[in-house]
Amino acid sequence: MSRIKEFNLPDLGEGLTEGEILAWLVKVGDTIELNQPIVEVETAKAAVEIPAKWAGQVRAIFHPEGTTVEVGTPIISIDTDPGAGPIEESTTGAPAADLPTPSAASLAAVEIAPEEGMVEPGLIGGAAPGGRTAVLVGYGPRTTAAKRRPRKGGVPAQAPTTPAAPAPVAAAPAPVAPAPAANANGRATGLVLAKPPVRKLAKDLGVDLTTLTGSGPLGSITREDVQQAASGTPAAAEPLTVTAPTTAAASFGADREQRIPVKGVRKLTAENMSRSAFTAPHVTEFLTVDVTRAMKALDRLRERREWRDVRVSPLLLVAKAVLLAVKRHPMVNSTWAGEEIVVKDYVNLGIAAATERGLIVPNIKDAGRLSLRELADAMTDLVQTAKAGKTSPANMSGGTLTITNVGVFGVDTGTPILPPGESAILAFGAVREMPWVHKGKVRPRLVTTLGLSFDHRIIDGELGSKFLRDIGDFLADPEAALLAWT
Question: Most exposed residue of 345, 357, 362, 421, measured as fewest CB within 10 angstroms of its CB?
Answer without folding.
Answer: 345
